[in-house]
Design a protein that fits this description.
By secondary structure, the chain is mainly alpha-helical. It has a single domain, classed as BFD-like [2Fe-2S]-binding domain (Arc Repressor Mutant, subunit A, Orthogonal Bundle), CATH 1.10.10.1100. 49% of the residues lie in helices and 9% in strands. The protein contains three helices and two strands; from the N terminus they run ββααα. A hairpin with a 4-residue loop joins strand 1 and strand 2. Helix 1 packs parallel to helix 3. The protein is globular, with a radius of gyration of 10 Å. Bound molecules: FE2/S2 (inorganic) cluster. FE2/S2 (inorganic) cluster binds next to loops.
Length: 57
């Protein structure tokens, strides 16, 4: 499922990137995938995905 339509980024791409340690924050998602940098409508869903995919501390 697409999370960020502006940049064609899927939930799978985000969860994979988190599990591989490529991203760990919204800033990382913005830098690596451009998530939330265009219209911004995906920011809440992307943050929820990020929180769910991050390992508990
Ligand atoms: Fe992600 Fe527009 S849908 S910036």
């Amino acid at each position: 499922m697409y999370v960020c339509l502006c940049n064609a980024i899927t939930d799978q791409q985000i969860t994979t990137a988190v599990s591989q340690g490529q991203v760990n924050s919204m800033r990382d998602l913005q830098r690596e995938f451009g998530v939330g940098t265009c219209c911004g409508k995906c920011a809440r869903d992307a943050r929820d995905l990020l929180d769910a995919a991050r390992p508990a501390l």
